[in-house]
Amino acid sequence: MDTTEMISKDIVSIVSQDKEEPWDDDEFQELVQTLPKEKNWYGTHLYFYQGFWCASRVFRAMICFQKHFQALDSDIFLTSIPKSGTTWLKALTFSIVNRNQFAREENPLLSSNPHQLVPVFEYDLYLNNPCPDLENSCPYQPRMFSTHLPYAFLPPSIKDSNSKIVYICRNPMDMFISLWFFTDKLRPDNVEPLSLDEAFEKFCQGMHDFGPFFDHVLGYWKASQENPNRILFLQYEDLKENINFHIKKLGKFLGFPFSEVEEEQGVVEEIARMCSFGNLKELDVNKNGMHTFGIAHNTLFRKAEVGNWCNYLTPSMVEYFKKLIQDKLDKSEVVFARTLGEVNKVIDSLAKLGVDRVEMFCIWLGSVTKRQDNMSNNGSQRAALFLWLVASDRLGMEDA
């Protein structure tokens, strides 16, 4: 059965969500009163529900989504924890699936932010309506949605359908720094900014939107291992390293493979160019305009760099992160093997220089990164200190 036939069959057989009854307000308030509550990073609250922390302002929307949503077999769900490459994944997937629907110069990405083309359940659809009109929310077929919710929280209709789920994760150190900068932009003027140390402590305790981070990652990782034909697990760093390969991988997984003719015509490369961070960031639509909660489109595009954490994290923070990665992902270390592998490569390279030259190398590295990236003195010192710390540990030195 081709994609068009599958979509038509789904639309005919779907149960109308307009007939669902919204959740009773008393029932909702009663539940909220029983939940553990903590302060969020930007002044509101987090509720701990079904094993994860969720923002108070989208909590009702999440419940309505879980209770009412009916999936189609043709649906595509893009999932992630915030600041893991969600915007990029939306642009890529939308362009891959709809590449034959319009000319390149008419690509909707030129006039719409990726989040407008692939709406988020808990922000865009269920926030103000317990039973939204999903068909009119998705002008293109197949329907494409996004969520930051953990796999365990997804509605049964998604798990039981033949729909496709794509999950993207990012190394937690870069994701944490990106989240810290982003949430500061959500902070009202009357709320004191959260220091890096405070944010780090909360992150490590799992107290952030849709955290704990490692539980979120492992939930989708395990699901992808159990059902690889329906759930694709991607790593941000892998896409950065070989985007053309992953565009083709995405297309094949979603049922929209690239033909030899398309590859010869450079269609894959064109999608990569259109969806690149540099191109998306410079589009007028992403320089202007607002998204849900008054989030400016331009705040969604910061750096998109791999390893930017080096400019901000202290050596002790990095060591703690390394232990968390190893402890939490011990049985699935392939998820962040690249992150740990690159750290160890640096350490091994330092070892070859000889113990007496390690400190000199770190000082040199700090000066080079400062010149190249216009880093602050504090940032370059942290980069050098980090390398010195981990190298000293591996080289068996008593003092770092």
Automatic annotation (TrEMBL):
InterPro entries per UniProt: P-loop_NTPase, Sulfotransferase_dom
Keyword entries, A-Z: Transferase
Source organism: Theobroma cacao (Cacao)
UniProt family annotation: Belongs to the sulfotransferase 1 family.
UniProt xrefs under Gene3D superfamilies: P-loop containing nucleotide triphosphate hydrolases
The name this protein goes by in its record: Sulfotransferase
EC number: 2.8.2.-
Top EC category: transferase
Keyword check for Transferase: yes
UniProt-listed SUPFAM superfamilies: P-loop containing nucleoside triphosphate hydrolases
GO BP, one annotated term: sulfation
Ranges where the Sulfotransferase domain occurs: 73-332
